[in-house]
Amino acid sequence: MLKNKKIPHTYVIVFYIIILAAICTWFIPGGVYDHTEKILPDGSSRNIILPQSFHQVESQPQTWQIFSAIFDGFVAKSDIIIFILLIGGAFWIMNASKAIDVAIMSFLKFTRSLEKHRLIKAIGVDNMVITLIMIMFSIFGAVFGMSEETIAFIIIFVPLSISMGYDSIVGVSMCFVAAGLGFAGAMLNPFTIGIAQGLSDVPLFSGIEYRFFCWVVINLVGIVFVLRYAARIKKNPKKSPVYEEDQVWRDKAMVETTDLTNYHTPLSAWIVFGITFIIMVIYSISYPNSTLSIGQSVAIIPIIPVLTAIFGISSIFALRKSVHFFILNLLIFTILYLIVGVMGYQWYVMEIATLFFGMGLASGIAMNYSPNHITSLFLAGAKDIMSAGLVVGLAGGIIIILQNGKIIDTMLHGLAGSMENVGKYGSVSIMYGIQTMINLVMPSGSAKAALTMPIMAPFSDLIGVSRQATIMAYQFGDGFTNMITPTSAVLIGVLGVAKIPYEKWVKWISGFMVILILLGLLLLIPTVTLNLNGF
Length: 535
Description:
single chain; two-stranded antiparallel sheet; globular; 22 helices
């Protein structure tokens, strides 16, 4: 009987959580903190709460609001939803060109050719590929807080993972989990470390030495965990918890060799190159130098002119070979411009979605597709990914219920009271637990910093704990559970794109979460027992 019982749909699970949140508003008293504006070291201002200002307010039990919260959730998460739809449509156009299939098959042939080297064969080419990709995305997460951007890469790495003989979970781990590990072990992330240290009156990005050590340890544990899982799936693919769901990706996977690909370069591809190159030249003249920020380090370099020159040269070689390689070149430079935009021009989902949307249109025109065909492909891609956008909006309803019910501040105030008279390490551990629990309902790192650090930082002074230790507790509590909390629009979006049911993801990652959370507890010990630089 139990075997025949179906696991609830992801939509059903999220709606159940909305109902549970509404029930909590009937039993948890309403309460709020007063807020004020604080000027940060970089000159910007941020709304923060006054630590001693908590007071109860009239409760706001939620009933029929569970339905209006869904509407409000879609409104609140509209930027992420639109981002997902534009990304899905753009990549569908690119997928129709078979450029990504050509890249995957070429990449696999190249990696297989490396196996003739004895050392590389002993290490394992696939292990090297997975490790290097994870390290790259972890650096992105640690340096500039890559999060939402990983949604765009799922469409690349899941097919790659399937083609390598793994499953969609390995593909998601290569970019999303890796960025999550970097986010948790952040060294220079301005959206978490920068804000938390600024609100705590601590020198920005100080204590980086120990944070770098933590980043190395966290990634070592994470990469080993993923490699062990990947080896098990490679040996027996049917052991994958998403083996049935991955049939969709296997059906899409390219089974022909690249020799059967119709290599050609239509005139339209040269026209796209010419127009794109002219636009890049104009921007190179307008922005001859870009200020790229990495933590406190600032570099002023002519990155846009340099990228323009490299794009011009590489595109000519690609076009002489085939339009497929030109489209791949467009993808590579789209990613490079994404990095420059985020680090130098504070790009967010609107700019990134626009960038990928332009890439998709350019890909279709380069293939000499008609406007109607490009439109049809875009709509097909948006339709295919629509379920991911819908579940993001549903998850946003959870936060709306908790906010409208006036219970988030009450929960925080009650948890903060549990830190009295438990010792230094006990207090830091409780702070870590509080931040972890809050992250389950408030996955925004910057919002959580603004909410908790004005309370936690002064409290740490009273008990003789370094404010840096408090920030580390926030950092770990904010980072790890981003990979499991159902209120994270990024996680839900990633799983929707990868077509991984949330309940199967939770079953897979729960053990990993336990390991990471315990690891966080161990890494907090030196913050209160050793004289660390910057602490």
